[in-house]
Write a structure and sequence with these properties.
Distance between the termini: 55 Å
Structural class: mainly alpha
Helix content: 55-70%
Order of helices and strands: HHHHHHHH
Number of domains: 2
Length: 201
């Protein structure tokens, strides 16, 4: 009321500009998307991102690129490999999010008092993982730099997750990165467990 201007300048902006600013990881764009819009696609986005990740892992299996006869029974076994990769990707994502929640709750219990606080942070983390959708073009346009592209996509997703935590809980830069670090530690622990069990991850 005192400045006679909208508190959230993005209310007046075109959605394309908001999306560009979100891709640039601007905190104010994240605040607008999380608090001033009614986006309810976080669940579908999470499933689609997990499918993208499972598809990428499925392609990277040793013999998945070999041409086989369509009538061959091995084809169906390969489909089960895809479902297995989806399950592993889901468990890794769950352990990553669990590591973040445990760290934040341990460091700042007052930030996550109610169920709605947890739900808001979960939605923010799921929405900020939209960078995983870039896995599909990276696989389609496969070239010599694909591993480098995948590493950049991972870094971009982690930066987006950090911004989502900062905006949702109104924190400084250090604590979100600490939570993400412990999330990655727990996720890698799950990966090591699967490798010890003899599963391809």
């Amino acid at each position: 009321k005192s400045c006679q201007k909208p508190v959230d300048k993005y209310i007046e902006y075109d959605p394309v500009i908001i999306l560009i600013n979100a891709v640039l990881c601007k905190a104010q764009a994240y605040r607008h998307i999380l608090f001033n819009t009614k986006i309810n696609i976080h669940g579908k986005l999470c499933i689609f991102c997990l499918l993208c990740e499972a598809y990428l892992r499925w392609l990277q299996l040793q013999d998945s690129s070999q041409n086989i006869d369509p009538d061959d029974l091995i084809r169906y076994a390969k489909e089960w490999d895809f479902y297995r990769m989806f399950g592993i990707a889901s468990l890794e994502q769950t352990s990553f999010l669990l590591g973040i929640f445990i760290t934040l709750w341990w460091m700042r219990p007052e930030m996550l008092k109610t169920k709605s606080d947890f739900i808001l942070l979960l939605k923010a983390l799921l929405l900020s993982s939209y960078g995983k959708l870039l896995l599909i073009p990276a696989v389609i346009w496969e070239h010599d730099y694909t591993p480098l592209c995948l590493a950049f996509i991972k870094v971009f997703v982690l930066i987006s997750n950090s911004q989502a935590i900062r905006v949702t809980l109104n924190l400084n830069r250090m604590l979100p990165w600490l939570a993400i670090f412990f999330g990655l530690v727990l996720e890698n622990g799950v990966v090591c467990l699967f490798q010890k069990m003899g599963w391809d991850v």
